[in-house]
Specification:
The protein has 1339 residues and is mostly helical. Strand 15 and strand 16 form a beta hairpin. It is globular. Its EC number is 2.7.7.6. It is an enzyme of class 2 (transferase). Belongs to the phage and mitochondrial RNA polymerase family.
């Protein structure tokens, strides 16, 4: 590590073979020798220990208590949020090593620990599958012994891995009596190594329970293997301070039956007594009794009345009839029906059956909510096979059902494929396993580490594998821009991932135990979360609960992309062999009918955006049937709302659903993000993040039945209604113009209109399917109280996990939802209900009193809407959010009609929305008074509307352009509305580009019928330019901060850790023949070494890692074709352009996410119901005032902690040892931008000339290298930095150096990164405390 303080001057270091000491000596040279940077401020020195990663100071990361968690007595001011944030800023950063280039010549144990390669991950997965049900324990043992000494593998082997080996050895001893002693010896030998510390892991509760099990099974045998008695094992347990309560779930986990479980409990109790701890015996047996008491019978839950349909019943069997669309309907039998009965439609019946199990289980499970929810989280494939079987049985009732393809539904065909594929897989997997076993027994295959599919394909039964591959492929149809098909690579990975997920789900169901039921803060709702004592309690509770679950976790090693591809390829290949469809045709001349069996799936190639891609195409007959039948009905939703409060988040993968595993963060193929999250969690820095997600997850919801009934009536009519599309597309197809054949422009316009019509028609079908899915879920949860478990994206923004139906959906989804708990309105609540109705209708830019009066002025319309929503005047349909408006009309009418409106129990969520929340944060960061006034941070009598203000600025600019004769201005004059510019203004602070702004405006113009489609493009381009210019003039402070963000990110992404410089230099010391230019010159190596992502920490302790790296693909051979995948375990260099452009919006998103989390925690402390949609906060009408105070106080406290200064300090600490190549300063306008931002950089003339000459040489070499390397395709780079290439061609216009240059030696020159970080933009005079007095900050 290179230690560098914050100095006014920075120094350049040559890279031609410097050691760490040389670098350190170079950095101590005087400022005027090589370079001068004057940033106008001084900084204190940072010690080597404080700047080093915490994980660098210890062999492996260990849990520790955060520094701000104190144990001394706390003062009353300790609960103040500002004080808490200041204490939090003193907490050491979460720092892990930067990933190494894939061709690095050396690695460290720390890198091996955090970033294992794919091969190591595959080895652990092979061991996992071989141990599963003792599939091949000898092979797993051989791999285990051969690889556990390798750094890259041993760091993946934890205590759970060792426990699974112990359990497998014990099972082998029970199954194979002839080799019993051998396996028992292996078991006790491995345990003793763990106990004596000879292995890298230590025993846990499960370890000792397993060994107690081994002793119980074999102590009476004739075996001579030395073992420990239960008394000795209990002594070891007590010596390690393992909680006794954690032993109980382990007994349930490892025992084969209840009898053996009770025997283990008895042996442990006896051991406690023998060691002289009778009080612990009582404690242990009492805990066991508490577990058993959960099974007591409870009272019956009310049964939900389902939606029914009439069915006449007069015969034993119901007659069915095939519809033209391939669906089945039951028809009334001939004759008089003796009785009319009700029946639930099958699609709902299957879902209802799932829920009915949960209801019925209440009789025996009662308050065991975990068990009730477990029944709901059953396999989607179990439900799917039941549905396919039902369709098949129904089909058998039809007459002549095989006369044509039209007589078979898609699901009936899928059932046939399933039967054929199940048989095929059973035979093929059996043959594969026999071959692998024979090769091993005959020592043909001496490579024990080889990837063999037999163990992976044996994890699930063939019939389930068959359903997985069929359903996953059918649901991928039409994705990736492939018509009637899908990309092959995506299909194989999806199928492989589905097999892995189903295996993990079955493992969870098999070994699942009730999770701890504590909810952070539930017992202390009146206490602040922001005292040191509260944080300490949260941390202690989570660690205790996590330890209780650790013992119950079996090894579920993640599969690499290679494994998923191989598994998916095997299954897809088998399906393509057996899946056929019978097609028919008729000879038009003879009338003779011909039939032919054709493959249902075929492999082909297509060119997409110039790239040749392997695709899987559906047979046209299957594609046609798929467009008419719904596969969605076949599959039970993977993730539904929960009937009980979700599990509290205990760790990165422990929380939310009971069985279905969900990660707390949504990240895609970014190992670095996962590593940082795991490290921060293990260090106890995410307690408030977990607690905030728990608050959001614990909000109860119900379906608004009044709205549901209206939606259902509209839906069943099949007509277009608001944004509900019609069942049959009702827009006429465009008619070709008269001069279609003679006028090329008219022809082009017609083709464009026809294309748009076809897209709208396809979108109509897609949107109707989407709404249908929401209604099905809402119908199932009628009269139920349910919850939405939450997780977050990598920026910390919270989202409900159920994807199809939640309160973050559209207006229809929100209108269908209400809170599960009711609260009296009170006088304030009744007023806020009126204001809320005005906001929803669109009258939201007036004062609060005017909004309330607006509702009273339209009270007659409110009553008419509530009483006759479809047959009345339909005033509610004119609202901006019509379905939510209707729900509010119904709620307000019910309140006013009640005996005492103030006592009316209201369940309707009422919103408080930020005014362009991103700009609000920018205005607070920069103290921008003008910007603050536009986004309601300042105190005003009426709310400001920045969107209307920008629209007026745009109108003025258009008027000037009209006077100049600008065509686009004349076409758009008088047509600019607030809605046209709203999205662009809103997303400007999130980094929207000109192209993005143009597309946003074009979407808005598409809704205007008075703008011809042929003029939309040029008009939207014109409006986008004018809008961006107007915003830049209005929010100058925000633009300055954005520039600072972008420059910092650019510097970081181009930097290199000092510890990598010595190895990097060795690549450039190759001796070359005269006259030849090496492609592996030092400059190319620098690009490979740029592995540094932009990372920062939120005020809640969450590390944010930007995942943007260049995409490098790896070739893998499969049964179908060779495919290229991006391996997340082999990170490539960062994409500097994306790192820079994405940092400003990502930072602001992390800031608004932190504000939301802080508000959620404050509301929970005050017992306020809380839900959020990013910058829209929801609660009951009666608690709006209380929530509003929390919103303002948390915003003020957050921005009073000097967010930008904290960020700058973190950059200087986190990247203290990083070096920046001087030549990168001359790429594009970086040097000029840094000087404009306040960095007074002076370069000697020879340094400048050397850098420019080197860039020019690199450009020539790069061109020559690209011509020579065109045929090298084993590793592809699809994501090139085009902007870097463009910038390198720009002329270099630099101010003259201000000091005489000094002679410089060395090929490459570097400067300390921290010395290039520009000074923060000057802050304005706006006081953020003013926000507390702003009425319309959130309104």
């Amino acid at each position: 590590m290179i230690t560098s303080g914050y100095r006014r001057g920075a120094c350049l270091a040559p890279l031609s073979g410097p050691s760490s000491s040389k670098l350190k000596n170079a950095s101590n040279r005087t400022n005027h020798e090589w370079i001068q940077l004057k940033v106008g401020r001084t900084y204190s020195s940072i010690s080597k220990k404080s700047e080093a990663p915490a994980s660098m100071l210890k062999p492996l990361p260990q849990r520790h208590r955060p520094n701000f968690v104190q144990t001394q007595t706390h003062s009353p001011a300790d609960g103040n949020l500002t004080s808490f944030l200041l204490r939090r800023a003193q907490e050491p950063l979460t720092i892990v090593p930067i990933p190494l280039p894939d061709d690095t010549q050396s690695s460290t144990p720390l890198h091996d620990y955090f970033f294992p390669d794919t091969r190591s991950q595959d080895l652990v997965a092979i061991m996992d599958t071989c141990l599963n049900d003792c599939y091949d324990v000898p092979r797993a043992r051989d791999i285990f012994e051969a690889t556990k000494k390798r750094n890259k593998v041993r760091y993946l082997l934890n205590t759970q891995t060792y426990n699974k080996f112990l359990l497998a050895y014990a099972e082998m001893a029970s199954r194979h009596e002839l080799h019993q002693d051998e396996w028992l010896r292996e078991t006790w030998l491995l345990f003793n190594k763990m106990e004596k510390g000879e292995e890298r892991v230590v025993p846990n509760a499960e370890t000792y329970v397993i060994m107690t099990l081994v002793w119980n099974r074999h102590h009476s045998s004739t075996s001579n293997v030395e073992s420990q008695s239960p008394e000795e094992l209990v002594r070891m347990i007590l010596a390690r301070d393992i909680p006794l309560a954690s032993l109980l779930p382990c007994c349930s986990l490892v025992a084969q039956d209840e009898k053996e479980q009770n025997e283990l409990i008895r042996l442990i109790s006896r051991g406690l007594a023998a060691n002289g701890h009778p009080h612990l015996v009582h404690e242990f047996t009492q805990a066991a009794d508490d577990v058993e008491a959960i099974q007591m019978e409870r009272s019956e839950l009310p049964v939900v009345r389902p939606v029914l349909r009439l069915r006449p019943r007069g015969k034993v069997e119901t007659e069915v009839q095939l519809s033209e669309d391939g669906s089945f309907t039951e028809v009334e039998p001939q004759g008089d029906a003796k009785e009319i009965v009700y029946e639930v439609p099958y699609n709902l019946r299957r879902l209802r059956q799932t829920l009915s199990k949960v209801t019925a289980a209440n009789r025996t499970l009662g308050d065991d909510l975990w068990a009730r929810q477990q029944l709901l989280e059953q396999s989607v494939y179990d439900v799917a096979v039941d549905r396919l079987k039902h369709e098949h049985e129904t089909l058998e009732k039809l007459q002549n059902n095989s006369s044509s393809l039209g007589g078979r539904s898609l699901r009936a065909m899928m059932w046939d494929w399933h039967q054929k594929l199940s048989t095929r897989l059973q035979d093929d997997i059996r043959v594969l396993v026999e071959e692998e076993t024979r090769d091993r027994s005959e020592l043909i295959d001496r490579n024990i580490n080889a990837l063999k599919l037999g163990s992976f394909l044996s994890l699930l039964p063939p019939d389930k594998l068959s359903l997985i591959v069929i359903l996953e492929l059918m649901n991928l149809q039409g994705t990736g821009g492939i018509e009637d098909g899908m990309k092959l690579t995506r299909a194989l990975l999806t199928v492989g991932r589905a097999v892995e997920d189903e295996y993990k789900a079955e493992t969870s169901r098999k070994y699942g135990i009730p999770a701890p039921t504590y909810i952070p803060g539930a017992a202390q709702r009146t206490q602040s979360y922001f005292t040191s004592n509260s944080y300490e309690v949260l941390h202690a509770r989570r660690i205790a609960a996590r330890q209780e679950l650790d013992s119950a976790e079996s090894l579920r090693a993640p599969w690499s992309y290679q494994v998923r591809l191989k598994v998916g390829s095997f299954l897809v290949d088998c399906l393509m062999d057996v899946a056929t469809v019978k097609r028919h045709t008729t000879d038009k001349k003879t009338g003779q009918r011909y039939s032919e069996e054709q493959p249902a799936f075929v492999h082909a190639y297509e060119y997409v955006r110039g790239h040749k891609l392997g695709v899987i195409k559906l047979n046209p007959a299957v594609a046609h049937r798929l467009s008419r039948d719904s596969v969605v009905e076949t599959i039970h939703p993977r993730q539904l709302p929960m009937l009980i409060k979700p599990n509290a988040w205990l760790d990165v993968e422990d929380g939310g659903y009971l069985i279905s595993k969900t990660t707390v963060m949504r990240y895609k193929d970014s190992l670095e993000q996962s590593v940082y999250l795991q490290e921060a969690s293990s260090q106890g820095k995410l307690e408030l993040v977990y607690a905030g997600l728990d608050v959001l997850s614990s909000t109860p919801w119900k379906i608004n039945k009044e709205i549901f009934d209206v939606v259902l009536e509209v839906w069943n009519s099949g007509e277009r209604f608001l944004k509900i599309p019609p069942s049959v597309y009702d827009e006429p197809e465009p008619i070709p113009p008269i001069d279609y054949e003679t006028n090329p422009r008219a022809k082009a316009n017609h083709i464009a209109k026809l294309k748009e019509w076809l897209n709208e028609k396809a979108n109509c079908h897609s949107n109707r399917c989407n709404i249908n899915y929401k209604l099905e879920i809402a119908r199932v949860f009628l009269n139920e109280q349910f919850y939405f478990p939450h997780n977050m994206d990598f920026r910390g923004r919270a989202y409900p996990v159920p994807p199809h139906f939640n309160h973050m959906g559209d207006d229809l989804s929100r209108g269908l939802l209400k809170f599960g708990e009711a609260k009296p309105l009170g006088e304030s609540g009744l007023r806020w209900l009126k204001i809320h109705l005005s906001n929803l209708h669109g009258f939201d830019k007036a004062s609060f009193s005017e909004r309330a009066q607006f509702t009273m002025d339209h009270l007659d319309d409110v009553y008419d809407s509530a009483e006759k929503p479809l047959s009345g005047r339909r005033w509610w349909m004119q609202a901006d959010d019509p379905w939510q408006c209707l729900a509010t009309c119904i709620e307000l009418r019910a309140a006013l009609e009640s005996p005492d409106p103030h006592q009316f129990e209201s369940t309707l969520p009422v919103h408080q929305d930020g005014t362009c929340n991103g700009l609000q944060h920018y205005a607070a960061l920069g103290g921008d008074r003008q910007g603050a006034a536009q986004v309601n941070l300042d105190v005003t009598d009426r709310p400001s509307d920045v969107y209307t203000y920008v629209a007026r600025m745009l109108d003025e600019a258009i008027e000037k352009d009209v006077a100049k004769g600008v065509e686009e201005a004349e076409l758009i004059q008088g047509k600019i509305t607030r809605k046209v510019v709203k999205q662009t203004v809103m997303t400007t602070v999130y980094g929207v580009t000109y192209i993005g702004a143009r597309e946003q405006i074009e979407r808005q113009l598409r809704e205007k019928s008075d703008i011809p489609s042929e003029n939309r493009y040029k008009i939207s381009a014109y409006v986008a330019k004018r809008t961006l210019a107007a915003i830049g003039d209005l929010f100058i402070g925000a633009k300055a901060i954005q520039t600072w963000f972008t420059l910092c990110a650019r510097l970081i992404a181009k930097s290199i850790p000092a510890e990598r410089m010595e190895e990097a230099s060795s690549f450039g010391q190759k001796k070359l023949k005269p006259g030849r230019i090496s492609k592996k010159i030092m400059s190319n190596r620098l690009g490979k070494e740029q592995m540094t992502s932009v990372i920062w920490t939120t005020a809640l302790g969450l590390p944010i890692v930007q995942p943007y790296r260049k995409v490098r693909r790896r070739q893998i051979m499969t049964n179908i074709q060779s495919v290229y995948i991006s391996d997340p375990n082999a990170p490539s260099e960062v994409n500097a352009t994306k790192q820079a452009s994405a940092f400003p919006p990502n930072f602001v998103h992390s800031l608004d996410a932190t504000h939301m989390m802080l508000t959620a925690l404050e509301c929970r402390s005050a017992d306020i119901t809380f839900a959020a949609v990013h910058d829209s906060y929801w609660t009951h009408a009666s608690t709006i005032d209380d929530m509003s105070r929390s919103i303002r106080s948390t915003f003020v406290d957050l921005h009073s902690s000097d967010v930008l200064q904290r960020l700058e300090t973190e950059f200087r600490v986190r990247y203290a040892s990083h070096k920046f190549p001087v030549k990168a300063l001359f790429q594009g306008s970086l040097l000029q931008n840094l000087r404009e931002a306040g960095c007074d950089i002076v370069l000697p003339k020879n340094v400048e000339e050397d850098a420019l000459n080197q860039l020019a040489a690199e450009k020539k070499i790069s061109k020559r290298s690209s011509e020579e390397d065109e045929s090298e395709a084993d590793v592809e780079d699809e994501d090139k930095e085009d902007s870097d290439t463009a910038e390198s061609e720009s002329p270099y216009i630099l101010p003259p150096p201000r000091s005489a240059p000094a002679p410089v030696t060395g090929r490459e020159r570097f400067v300390n990164l921290v010395d290039l970080i520009p000074p923060l933009p000057q802050k304005g005079d706006f006081e953020v405390r003013t926000v507390k007095d702003s009425l319309y900050f959130f309104s």
